[in-house]
Amino acid sequence: MIGFLKGRLAMKQPPMLTLDVNGVGYELEAPMSTFYGLPSTGEAVALFTHLVVREDAHILFGFGTEAERRLFRGLLKVSGVGPKIALGILSGASVEDFLRTIEAEDVGMLTRIPGIGRKTAERIIIEMRDSVQKLSMPALAGNPLGTATALSPQSEAFSALVALGYKPPEVTRLLKSADEPGLSTTEIIRRALKSAVKA
Question: Is the pTM above the cut of 0.70?
């Protein structure tokens, strides 16, 4: 899997862009939220990526932030939502706005995005309710340009446990049992998993 690409912006024509990475041109599709932050053609840029494999095509998607990619991946898990609708959502709302929409259960806001009817909007709200806390967490990988900010071991452990399939409220409970200052991320996860087995 390609995690991110760093190179020179060769072409941008929404929703498509081409990134020249050491002489290889990668074609990507990106939401407008990413396009707004792109530099001029010919300048250096780094983007998080997600590869969608279909029978007839391999499509690479690019994102300016890890939060955008995380939301895109979360949306793809919703039944009836494909890459096109997910891109539409990211183009029509920032990650923060989208998370507020889910928390407020604002069906009307979602139906204003092209391609989303009332039933799809309701399904997105229902299926993404549990994901809101995970999606609103700070990005673990930071920015691919190298401006990553280190997360606390507790935050890293939280992300890891959610990735393992535990629900955010359950993770919060498990982490309380491993709440001891000075523990490494690995040790926190080990203790949390131990207490999960006992529960």
Answer: no
